[in-house]
From TrEMBL, chain A:
Protein name according to UniProt: Unannotated protein
Source organism per UniProt: freshwater metagenome
CDD domains, per the entry: ABC_MJ0796_LolCDE_FtsE (cd03255)
UniProt keyword Mitochondrion, yes or no: no
GO cellular component: membrane protein complex; plasma membrane
TrEMBL record, chain B:
Domain Transcription regulator PadR C-terminal: 91-171
Domain Transcription regulator PadR N-terminal: 7-77
Protein's UniProt name: Unannotated protein
Pfam families: PadR (PF03551), Vir_act_alpha_C (PF10400)
Length: 239, 191
């Protein structure tokens, strides 16, 4: 089983001297292909910092971050931006769709930015919309969709082009119980199909969809619940 | 749990025999609360004595069936229209354990909370897995079992939220002036 995301002894300090805030203090963390990992913790525990660092949106003060075996910290800004577009998909609480673009255009955008021809990008986008169950909404604008539908578009955008690492920050935050569950079902399905998923949430009911739950307190992983990947258990020599 | 009322309400549907009652109960609740067949027969005997059920003859395979009497129907109607009593909270081992842990000196409350949270989360993950597998066949017994599962999910979630809340309160208490034992307990949480 291959590690899609690996954090090794990651520290993140905001500010300096007296005012320094240590958001992460030596976090090691791995998400394998086919695995959904939930990160739970109260506000201020460092869970959002963990996610932005995993996605290359923020840099660790210390430690290593690998995505599909590549050390993200050592990349140039341009290389990192390219990795974000091709390997990593984000799902945010606020959907973050471009209001002036239709659903299919929103989903196609990261493909086009990556130089894929627009016809191909649109075909990829349509396939992603089919996967999340809303191909009929392709030509709608975000404002004409419900919150649940917008989040489906955001998930389609996060997975288009077979990206293997999906990072989700409270993706069900603004949705009702049943719609939220549908979103988790989609994330889960994507991971079952081979992606690695990291889900940041403070809701236990949502974290329970994950294979593993990591508890974060004051920038430190205090515990994990759930089974280790079977292959790992079988490696007797594993440290 | 009221086995008596569960059996009576199943008989409201149609006359059934003992083993059938057990199977029907378990299919609707997903076997969450296993019922042994001896318990079913003892309950039926008691219900017959109290005039709530009566023999309804044998089916073609020779099973002795039971049906509701007039007062049996009334009992079922009363059960469904009366709320479950919440005035006397059921004994909650976890709440009692935590109340004692924060007052008895030398208990590592932080570890206690985290171990429990981890265990409750594992249970919640199991329920969620069952939910994912639960069929969408639209059958009435699937819906019943789905609702029972939701109840377990919500209860486990409430327990985890309560544990988070306890932890936050103890951490806050540790930074304020509080009676010695609670302060000591809270100190352990923050460590």
């Amino acid at each position: 089983m291959s590690a899609v995301l690996r954090l090794v002894d990651v520290h993140r300090v905001h500010g300096e001297g007296e005012a320094a805030v240590r958001a992460l203090r030596g976090v090691s963390f791995t998400a394998h292909a086919g695995e959904l990992v939930a990160v739970m913790g109260p506000s201020g525990s460092g869970k959002s910092t963990l996610l932005t660092i995993s996605g290359g949106l923020d840099q660790p003060t210390e430690g290593r971050v690998e995505v599909e075996g590549v050390d993200v910290v050592g990349l140039s800004q341009q290389q990192r931006a390219r990795m974000r577009r091709t390997s990593i998909g984000y799902v945010f609480q606020g959907f973050n769709l471009v209001p002036a673009l239709t659903a299919v255009e929103n989903v196609a955008l990261p493909r086009e930015l990556d130089g894929v021809r627009s016809g191909q990008a649109r075909r990829d986008a349509m396939r992603a919309l089919e996967e999340v169950g809303i191909p009929e909404l392709a030509d709608r604008f975000p404002d004409d969709m419900s919150g649940g539908q917008q989040q489906r578009v955001a998930i389609a955008r996060a997975v288009v082009g077979e990206r293997r690492l999906i990072l989700a920050d409270e993706p069900t935050g603004a949705l009702d119980t049943e719609t939220g569950e549908e979103i988790l079902r989609l994330l889960r399905a994507r991971c079952d199909a081979g992606a690695a998923g990291v889900l940041v949430t403070h809701e236990a009911r949502h974290a329970a969809w994950a294979d593993r739950v990591v508890f974060l307190r004051d920038g430190v992983v205090v515990d994990e619940s759930g089974s280790a990947p079977v292959e790992d258990l079988l490696q007797a020599s594993h440290p | 749990m009221s086995v008596k009322h569960a059996l009576l309400s199943l008989l409201e549907q149609e006359p059934m025999y003992g083993y059938q009652l057990r199977q029907e109960f378990e299919s609707r609740t997903g076997g969450t609360w296993p019922l042994n067949v001896g318990q079913v027969y003892t309950t039926l005997t008691r219900l017959e004595r109290d005039g709530l059920v009566e023999a309804a003859g044998e089916d073609e395979d020779g099973h002795e069936r039971w049906r509701l009497t007039e007062s049996g129907h009334e009992e079922v109607a009363t059960w469904f229209t009366t709320p479950v009593a919440r005035t006397q909270p059921p004994r909650d081992e976890l709440a009692i354990k935590l109340a004692l842990a924060v007052t008895v000196p030398g208990v590592d409350v932080g570890t206690l909370i985290q171990r429990q949270r981890s265990a409750s989360m594992t249970a919640l993950q199991d329920y969620t897995r069952l939910k994912r597998q639960a069929g969408a066949s639209g059958e009435a017994s699937d819906l019943a079992w789905g609702l029972v599962l939701d109840s377990l999910v919500f209860a486990a979630e409430a327990e985890i939220r309560w544990l988070d809340h306890c932890e936050a309160r103890l951490r806050r208490a540790a930074t304020q002036e509080v009676p010695a034992t609670a302060a000591a307990a809270a100190e352990q949480v923050t460590r």
